[in-house]
Amino acid sequence: MSRLTSECLKGPKGNHMPKLINVHHPQHTMQQAQEYVKTYILMPSGLLGLVCVIGAVGGLGYQWLSADSYTWDTFYQSSGLFMSGVGLGAAQTLYQRYLLREFPEVLAARMKEGLNRQRGTLKKRSEATTIEHPGRQFVPLAYLLGVMMLIGGTIAASAYGRVGMIPAILMPWAGFYWARLFLWRRVIKVEKGG
Asked: Which of 36, 50, 89, 148 falls between 20 and 30 A from 81, CA-CA?
């Protein structure tokens, strides 16, 4: 936690009153930002990626064994869906790693807000640190285009291609979440309990 120090100020009647001052440490901010990444990015990405891969591979296995409609085109199209998800997940992870490197206080503030929400002590929303960098106005558009690309690929592979509906829906998201998981694990070292 931040170190608290007291400072004396003169009150309205001239007497001295102590005032608490927060001293912020950059290493503490970076540690909280990394905790945010572990809690809200790494853990959900691992779990959702695993669920999506199991569902997608299970759907492709069903298509191969029961429906007998698995061909080389199915393999190429499902691999393309997976790789499109990997591309989008890698792009988002690179942007978020940039935010961690340049604006760790934003991720640290999100972690504090999440902890306060869990404790039920969410107070008046503190003034959030703004993210200002070149191209910031294009980030929402990039997210929208990425999601539209994944949905468009899913529709095309399912309706016009050789991939079943369930694998077509789950395969891009499996690639997306696993790319995030593996690219973040290089940056954030998860301590092993023991």
From this structure: 36
